[in-house]
Amino acid sequence: MTIRLTGYAHGGGCACKIPPGELEDAVRGLAGQAHDRVLVGLDDGDDAAAVLVRDDLAVLSTADFFTPVVDDAYDWGRIAAANALSDIYAMGGTPVVAINLVGWPRETLPMELMTEVLRGGLAVAQQAGCPVIGGHSIDDPEPKYGMAVTGVADPKKLLRNDSAVPGLPLTLTKPIGVGLLNNRHKRTGEVSVEAVELMTRLNRGAAREAVEAGVRAATDVTGFGLLGHLHKMCRASGVGAVIDRGAVPVIGGAVEALRDGFVSGGTQRNLDWVRPHLRPGPGITEDDLLLLADAQTSGGLLIAGELSGYPVIGHTVPGSGVEVR
After folding, report:
1. Catalytic residue list
2. Is residue 87 part of a domain?
3. Could you provide one GO biological process annotation from this protein's UniProt record (predicted)?
4. Does residue 158 form part of some domain?
């Protein structure tokens, strides 16, 4: 019998994420991140920190965890692990070690259920070739799971969110819309097998191809949605962008979930945050913008460059802001 997390799945992407504007206000001006060996720190809100160890070696560090996005404990573990590992891939790195981060309501949910979550996380980490060597757990009223991951990269080949220049194609390596399907799952119990497959798929292959192609700017699309993460890249790089709404790949069922009103609060906050920097073209509807702002979990890479086999969804331009056509 499959053990489930019914009643705890939150849906809507990383629904527990602090809204982007509030988060930036909270960390603005914090001291301690400056050091001559820090290649990437807090300044531009990149996917992971990068510290120079040798001229040919940078160490990457990241952590990510969240409440359940699906009812199946094993799948939640797989999704959370893929999501945490993605931050290393988004920097052009290779994960080398991970530790588990767990909050568990031990008086409410059986420990056997936590074992299933950890088993799912371990399965994806093994697929990535990344050993999991322990972790930390607390008694928590609400279940939470994720990983802190350490990776390595060539410091001369880092993928960063502040390295885009005008005139580059924008490539997206996974369809968007899983937040809408997760929110529908939360409210109706309807499971999207395609969404689970997408969220557990590693970004390893796309990251390797990007590094080999000489790409310098990338990020992954997660809780702030495609528009939010694109805005952060544009702002950090000092460029603008044009997005072709019709070229953006969308997972099956997401448009119908949007039509039926399964929009999470996180998605609406994403759109509210980025709206002052948007220029919607003729024919672009509010629903189009909500879809592009949909809060993703373990989404694809957004790459300032062209990769074989992945759709180009727009391009970078001089200036600032994001135009949606």
Report:
1. 14
2. yes
3. selenocysteine biosynthetic process
4. no
Express each pLDDT in 194-232 by its tens digit: 999 999 999 999 999 999 999 999 999 999 999 999 999
Q: 210 in a domain, yes or no? A: yes
Tell whether 140 is in a known binding site: no
Shared-domain flag, residues 146 and 248:
no
Nearest to 3 by CA among 77, 65, 107: 77
Domain stop point among 153, 185, 208: 153
Q: Is 232 annotated as a binding residue?
A: no
Tokens at 154, concatenated: 């060539």
| pLDDT tens profile 76-89 | 999 999 999 999 99
DSSP label of 204: H
Domain holding 309: CATH number? 3.90.650.10
Give me the helices (H) in the chain, please: 20-27, 73-89, 111-127, 178-188, 193-200, 204-212, 225-237, 254-259, 265-274, 286-292
**pTM: predicted TM-score of the whole model, two decimal places:** 0.92
Is 46 annotated for ligand binding? yes
